[in-house]
Amino acid sequence: MLLDSPLLDPPAWLESVATPIANAVGLPALAGVLHIAVFSCLLSFVVQYLSSVLSPKLFPKYYPTLKAKRDDWDLHVVGWVYSLVATPLALSLIFNPSKELLVNPLYGWAIREGRLSAIATGYFVWDTKVSAQHIGTQGLGFLAHGLACGVAFAFTMRPFLLYCGPNFLVWELSTIFLNVHWFCDKFQMTGSTLQLVNGVFLIVAYVGARLVWGTYNSVMLIKLLFGPNSNPDVGFLRYQYVFINIGLNLLNLFWFRAMVLALKKRFVKADPNAKNEPIAIDGKFSRKAKKDQ
User: How far apart are CA 240 and CA 246, in angstroms?
Assistant: First the structure.
């Protein structure tokens, strides 16, 4: 498996430099995977840049002319690439978790899950930065999501709740189909058979991965945090994860409603007397009527 590869081992000098820093911030396990987190973050910026260079050449007819819309396109490319990488890795660890975490799911550490968590941490650092930079188009919801996920995955480096990481990272399964839906609109394929079929997969993936699997694992998370093996000394950290988990589940419900309405708008014949306002699936909690994203 990729996450087992010795090619991902850190150089000895880098780990020795990172160790006192990781200990100082209370994330000792970070020292062994810091290089992966940094690489993941930098790669996200590289993919964003490559999209801005290659997309207008590959898709001159569809790549937007307005800078805000070009930026939005490039951010979707990065998110799509990340979901295509993170989802299969998370699924492989759900079906084949490390023995160390089965023995101690609350405080255990395993290199495969640790490396995946580092990939996620690096990506969400990028995600938080660009969501803040483009909050006008991305919305407060995306910023809150990126920041919450970044904190949640970073703190698995204590180590703490590393076992739960893949179970929540698999939420990205729906992101794969969400971006297909978004790009169908951009490639003037709104209402096409491809968008319809993808919409079915999107609904199934969203309900299955985020609402059903996500709710189940949220319950399991609470049981772990407040079960007999939990340590009262990490009381604040426990409540931090509860707060983050509740917030992310509320965002899932908010986005699910927006997603269903967006699909309905594209495939259900509208009342000719009804207001024809666009429905975007983004991080905005309120909006005025405007042109589609």
Answer: 10
**What is the rounded distance in angstroms from the CA atom of residue 33 to the CA atom of residue 93?**
17
The count of other CB atoms within 10 Å of the CB of residue 82 is 24
Please tell me the total number of residues recorded for the chain in this structure.
Answer: 293
Q: How far is CA 139 from CA 27, 96, 206, in A?
A: 30, 36, 20
Q: Where does 113-235 show beta strands of DSSP type E? A: none
Q: Which of 217, 141, 204, 136 is nearest to 176 (CA)?
A: 204
Segment 73-101 shows an average pLDDT of 97
pTM, rounded to two decimals: 0.90
d(Cα 33, Cα 42) in Å, to the nearest integer?
A: 14
Do residues 51 and 77 lie in contact, with contact meaning Cβ atoms separated by under 8 Å? yes
% the chain with pLDDT above 70: 91
Residue 270 backbone dihedrals phi, psi, to 5 degrees: -85, 155
Whether the CB-CB separation of 164 and 221 falls below 8 Å is answered with yes
